[in-house]
Protein backbone atom coordinates (compact mmCIF):
# COMPACT_ATOMS: atom_id res chain seq x y z
CA UNK A 1 0.00 0.00 0.00
CA UNK A 2 1.31 3.43 -0.94
CA UNK A 3 2.03 6.13 1.63
CA UNK A 4 1.16 8.69 -1.06
CA UNK A 5 -2.47 9.41 -1.90
CA UNK A 6 -4.01 11.55 -4.61
CA UNK A 7 -7.61 12.72 -4.66
CA UNK A 8 -8.03 12.33 -8.38
CA UNK A 9 -10.48 13.32 -11.08
CA UNK A 10 -9.37 11.71 -14.35
CA UNK A 11 -11.27 14.34 -16.35
CA UNK A 12 -9.06 17.11 -14.91
CA UNK A 13 -5.86 17.92 -16.79
CA UNK A 14 -4.07 19.14 -13.66
CA UNK A 15 -5.01 16.00 -11.77
CA UNK A 16 -3.71 13.82 -14.62
CA UNK A 17 -0.49 15.85 -14.73
CA UNK A 18 0.11 15.41 -11.00
CA UNK A 19 -0.48 11.67 -11.29
CA UNK A 20 2.02 11.57 -14.17
CA UNK A 21 4.57 13.54 -12.10
CA UNK A 22 4.22 11.11 -9.21
CA UNK A 23 4.67 8.12 -11.50
CA UNK A 24 7.71 9.76 -13.14
CA UNK A 25 9.23 9.88 -9.64
CA UNK A 26 8.62 6.13 -9.29
CA UNK A 27 5.64 6.59 -6.99
CA UNK A 28 2.44 4.65 -7.57
CA UNK A 29 0.02 6.49 -5.28
CA UNK A 30 -3.19 5.28 -3.79
CA UNK A 31 -5.81 6.87 -6.00
CA UNK A 32 -9.03 8.12 -4.45
CA UNK A 33 -11.71 8.95 -6.99
CA UNK A 34 -13.20 11.48 -4.61
CA UNK A 35 -16.23 12.25 -6.79
CA UNK A 36 -17.37 8.64 -6.43
CA UNK A 37 -15.98 8.11 -2.92
CA UNK A 38 -16.01 11.47 -1.15
CA UNK A 39 -14.08 11.92 2.08
CA UNK A 40 -15.90 12.20 5.37
CA UNK A 41 -16.01 15.54 7.17
CA UNK A 42 -13.05 14.88 9.47
CA UNK A 43 -10.86 13.69 6.59
CA UNK A 44 -11.74 16.64 4.36
CA UNK A 45 -11.20 19.19 7.12
CA UNK A 46 -7.97 17.48 8.15
CA UNK A 47 -6.45 17.45 4.66
CA UNK A 48 -7.39 21.09 4.12
CA UNK A 49 -5.76 22.06 7.43
CA UNK A 50 -2.69 19.88 6.80
CA UNK A 51 -2.25 21.62 3.43
CA UNK A 52 -2.25 24.96 5.25
CA UNK A 53 -5.39 26.20 3.50
CA UNK A 54 -8.59 27.80 4.61
CA UNK A 55 -11.81 26.00 3.75
CA UNK A 56 -12.58 28.69 1.18
CA UNK A 57 -9.20 28.14 -0.50
CA UNK A 58 -10.16 24.48 -1.02
CA UNK A 59 -13.46 25.07 -2.82
CA UNK A 60 -13.90 25.22 -6.59
CA UNK A 61 -15.37 28.66 -7.20
CA UNK A 62 -15.85 28.11 -10.94
CA UNK A 63 -18.41 25.32 -10.52
CA UNK A 64 -22.06 26.08 -11.20
CA UNK A 65 -22.91 24.55 -7.82
CA UNK A 66 -20.81 27.26 -6.14
CA UNK A 67 -22.98 30.00 -7.61
CA UNK A 68 -26.24 28.07 -7.28
CA UNK A 69 -25.65 27.49 -3.56
CA UNK A 70 -24.57 31.09 -2.93
CA UNK A 71 -21.23 29.93 -1.53
CA UNK A 72 -19.54 33.23 -2.27
CA UNK A 73 -21.54 34.80 0.57
CA UNK A 74 -18.93 35.93 3.13
CA UNK A 75 -21.48 35.41 5.92
CA UNK A 76 -21.23 31.62 5.45
CA UNK A 77 -18.94 30.05 8.00
CA UNK A 78 -16.45 27.25 7.36
CA UNK A 79 -18.92 24.62 8.59
CA UNK A 80 -21.48 25.64 5.97
CA UNK A 81 -18.86 25.62 3.22
CA UNK A 82 -17.62 22.18 4.32
CA UNK A 83 -21.23 20.94 4.36
CA UNK A 84 -21.63 22.08 0.74
CA UNK A 85 -18.40 20.38 -0.31
CA UNK A 86 -19.47 17.13 1.33
CA UNK A 87 -22.94 17.29 -0.22
CA UNK A 88 -21.51 18.00 -3.68
CA UNK A 89 -17.90 16.75 -3.97
CA UNK A 90 -17.42 18.49 -7.34
CA UNK A 91 -16.90 21.57 -5.15
CA UNK A 92 -13.69 20.10 -3.66
CA UNK A 93 -10.68 21.63 -5.41
CA UNK A 94 -8.29 19.13 -6.92
CA UNK A 95 -5.95 17.40 -6.80
CA UNK A 96 -5.01 17.02 -3.17
CA UNK A 97 -1.95 14.85 -2.53
CA UNK A 98 -0.87 13.56 0.86
CA UNK A 99 2.52 12.07 1.72
CA UNK A 100 4.39 11.50 4.97
CA UNK A 101 5.87 14.97 4.40
CA UNK A 102 2.53 16.78 4.25
CA UNK A 103 -0.47 17.58 2.09
CA UNK A 104 -0.82 19.96 -0.83
CA UNK A 105 -3.46 21.20 -3.17
CA UNK A 106 -1.36 20.70 -6.29
CA UNK A 107 -2.27 23.75 -8.32
CA UNK A 108 -0.03 24.23 -10.13
CA UNK A 109 0.88 20.58 -10.56
CA UNK A 110 4.52 21.14 -9.64
CA UNK A 111 3.52 21.91 -6.03
CA UNK A 112 3.49 18.17 -5.47
CA UNK A 113 7.31 18.27 -5.43
CA UNK A 114 7.14 20.22 -2.12
CA UNK A 115 6.02 17.09 -0.29
CA UNK A 116 8.00 14.38 -2.06
Automatic annotation (TrEMBL):
Superkingdom classification of source: Bacteria
Alphabetically ordered keywords of this record: Arsenical resistance, Oxidoreductase
Keyword Ubl conjugation: no
InterPro entries per the UniProt record, alphabetical: Arsenate_reductase, Arsenate_reductase-like, Thioredoxin-like_sf
Catalytic activity: [glutaredoxin]-dithiol + arsenate + glutathione + H(+) = glutathionyl-S-S-[glutaredoxin] + arsenite + H2O
GO biological process: response to arsenic-containing substance
Key word Iron present: no
Class of enzymatic activity (EC top level): oxidoreductase
Family from the record: Belongs to the ArsC family.
NCBIfam families hit by this protein: arsC
UniProt name for this protein: Arsenate reductase
Organism: Gluconacetobacter johannae
Gene designation: arsC
Amino acid sequence: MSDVTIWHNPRCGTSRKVLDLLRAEGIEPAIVFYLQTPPDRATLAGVIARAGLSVREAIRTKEAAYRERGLGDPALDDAAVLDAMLADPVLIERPFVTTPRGARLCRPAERVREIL
